[in-house]
Amino acid sequence: MRAVLWQGTNHIGVETVPDPTLLLQSDVIVRVTSTAICGSDLHLLDGYIPSMEKGDILGHEFMGEIVEVGRDVSKVKVGDRVIMPFNLACGVCEPCQRGLFSACDNSNPNHRMAEALYGATSASGLFGYSHLFGGYAGGQAQFVRVPFADVSCFPIQSDLRDDQVLFLTDIFPTGYQAAENCGIQPGRDVVAVFGAGPVGQFAARSAQMLGAAHVIVIDRVPERLALAEAAGMQTINYEREDVLVALHEATGGRGPDHTIDAVGLEAHGHGPGALLDTAEQKLRLSFDRITALRWAILSCAKGGTVSMPGVYGGLVDKLPLGSAFGKGLTLKMGQTHTHRYVRPLLSRIEGGEIDPSFVITHRAPLSQAPDLYKTFRDKKDGCIKVVLDPWA
């Protein structure tokens, strides 16, 4: 089969590799019909997530048709059209039973590696996202092995197009959980979203769905800000305005009630903090550039919530924790518990409340993935979201 492979920092290729096979009887094999490049894939391209190996298959946003099932699989069958959350969960451990699927105890066989880096506990396994998170092959390929199939596979029984349901595998639930974590008081609260990329767009629209009185989106890329404006949001271009002053003025001096950092570890910005972040990251003295997170904390109103769907890789520097403490902020973060959002958000799509395909700007065959990774990373050609066809 053809697949998108990580071949080194800043080096992506498309090559022919062996087809996947069932490794456990709880697995299925899926023929991938649509797959996407996620913003967090760029952290792999740029070499900021450790433990990638040459030849690893990328991709954690994908869907398709089941073509083979293990004998222990009982809830899905050959021929089912399915979507799969980007994170893997066993469904039976204590975190999974509590709905905390991204904290699954059993889906990351390399948990000791993650624990050595991050501490005493680890996150779940992830498709196509380094050996730190299990070393699972990703779905930017013609076929993919899906472990824990009875938990991982969600059949799509409606006639919705692939591009209307594909993003239920990651960015729509990720944006929704980020907004839900804010505990928005309908009709009253102001929410500021840092980053107008795909997750930021879904976080902003989710804040609207949850009743936010006003949503402000901060970025520097005109077409991304325009997409937010088209949905009725106020926008701030941080290269043209002082973002903290602008948010202060937009909220009558109070600050946004909740802020969402939808950027993560490769934030751009200006000022001494941003320059120091860049230097430390290049020297590998720090994993993360946290300008967006600093702004999210500094701008948030007293007693507010800072929600962090953006991915962080490790240690950070110059975090204004004193500001967060002084204002009594609540910080919420972590990988999305995708499984618990798939069906509720699918109902919203089926009901016509939202069409997630609004975010797609580029469609291409798998063979164009190497160029489109860089187009997406460098924010060229108006690129906001790329969907790949493995069979074109």
From TrEMBL:
Domain named Alcohol dehydrogenase-like N-terminal: residues:
26-151
| Zinc as UniProt keyword | yes
Enumerate the cofactors the protein uses. Answer: Zn(2+)
Which UniProt keywords are present, listed alphabetically?
Answer: Metal-binding, Oxidoreductase, Zinc
Keyword flag Transmembrane: no
Which part of the chain is the Alcohol dehydrogenase-like C-terminal domain?
198-265
Q: Known CDD domains for this protein? A: FDH_like_1
Give the protein family: Belongs to the zinc-containing alcohol dehydrogenase family.
- In Swiss-Prot or TrEMBL terms, this protein is called Glutathione-dependent formaldehyde dehydrogenase
